[in-house]
Specification:
Elements: H1 3-18, H2 37-51, H3 55-70, H4 88-91, H5 95-109, H6 120-134, H7 168-176, H8 182-189, E1 196-198, H9 203-207, H10 221-230, E2 240-242, H11 254-260, H12 267-274, H13 276-287, H14 289-303
Antiparallel strand pairs: 1-2
Helix pairs in contact: 2-5, 2-6, 3-5, 3-6, 5-6, 8-13, 8-14, 11-13, 12-13, 13-14
Length: 324
């Protein structure tokens, strides 16, 4: 083998071990086997989106959780006992996200030419792009060619996902292990412009932050009292609160403006502004929505390459909730 080619092959092998090699993903992967794929997915997702807005944040969060745990292989969709979705970090995943993928796959499989030829992982990636766009965010081309994984364990989720209480060092560690930069981290955090969380995830910030400060001093005080009104100390911790209190049903750059005003719901949100290393990026995205959209598309594309299975790896599931 020629020396330059050998270097490329060895480099790709190393990247495969870290889940970052995506040479076989490409745009238009199904152009011959299922030419109307994107139309089918878009139609199903649009119908679901019109029925319930939770489809948007639910699908987006599902994609993120899938890619961060075992790579983008739809392992989060598997429904056997003690699978990824049974971990406490995944139990709160909205059922609408799962249902969106089910409806999109059914739409694809109604075409005999496409039936059982498109992976659940690719359908999830396309559905995620579509919900972002339907909620007002950018439209972008999705690289395709993923295969579905056969393994999904509750243990694999442990310590795999960023947590609401993480600082910037911890967040950067999670993202860098997946080939994502700090700019990618900030851009992807902007997805919190959609969706909701539960009182239990941030109650310490408004009631018991530290011995000296009951309320996290990085929180806007008026916002903290609003959160207290919505989440009384003995309230059901499952009550949902909008991540973005200003434009909760629009994909925009309001999330970053909220951070500038001390209105990040999680510690892991607000730290992006309070830590000087990432503050400039927050300020850029807050003042320039086009810059945020561009960075978000770049980050989503990189995220979609993490740990993918291609070629003869994995399978094309007949049913997204179980292995063939």
């Amino acid at each position: 083998m020629e020396a330059p080619r050998l270097v490329v092959v060895l480099s790709c092998l190393l990247l495969l071990l870290s889940g970052r090699c995506s040479a076989q993903l490409r745009k238009g992967f199904y152009s011959k086997t299922c030419p109307n794929l994107e139309k089918y997915v878009r139609s199903a997702v649009s119908t679901k989106f019109q029925q319930t807005f939770v489809t948007a944040p639910g699908t987006l969060r599902l994609f993120f959780h899938d890619c961060f745990v075992r790579g983008c292989d739809a392992s989060v969709l598997l429904g056997h006992k003690n699978a990824e979705k049974d971990h406490p970090d995944d139990i709160s995943l909205a059922g609408d996200g799962f249902d969106t993928v089910v409806k999109a796959k059914a739409a694809v499989d109604r075409d005999p030419q496409c039936r059982n030829k498109v992976s659940c992982a690719d359908i999830l990636a396309l559905a995620t792009r579509d919900v972002v766009n339907l909620a007002g965010g950018p439209f972008y081309e999705v690289e395709l060619g993923r295969r579905d994984g056969r393994i999904s364990t509750i243990a694999s989720v442990q310590h795999s996902l960023p947590q609401p209480f993480h600082n910037l060092n911890q967040l950067n560690s999670h993202f860098s292990r997946r080939g994502l930069s700090q700019t990618d981290l900030v851009a992807l955090s902007g997805a919190h412009t959609l969706g909701f969380s539960h009182c239990s995830k941030f109650s310490n910030r408004i009631y018991n932050f530290s011995p000296r400060n009951r309320i996290d001093p990085s929180l806007n005080l008026q916002y903290a009292f609003q959160l207290r009104n919505m989440c009384p100390s003995k309230v059901d911790p499952r009550i949902a609160i909008n991540m973005d209190p200003v434009t909760p049903q629009k994909f925009d750059n309001q999330y970053f403006k909220n951070l500038q005003n001390g209105m990040g719901l999680f510690t892991s949100d607000q730290v992006l502004f309070t830590d000087g290393r990432s503050r400039a990026t927050v300020n850029l995205f807050a003042s320039n929505e086009a810059a945020f959209n561009s960075a978000f598309v770049s980050a989503m594309t990189k995220l979609g390459r993490v740990g993918v299975k291609t070629g003869r790896q994995g399978e094309i599931r007949v049913d997204c909730s179980r292995v063939n």
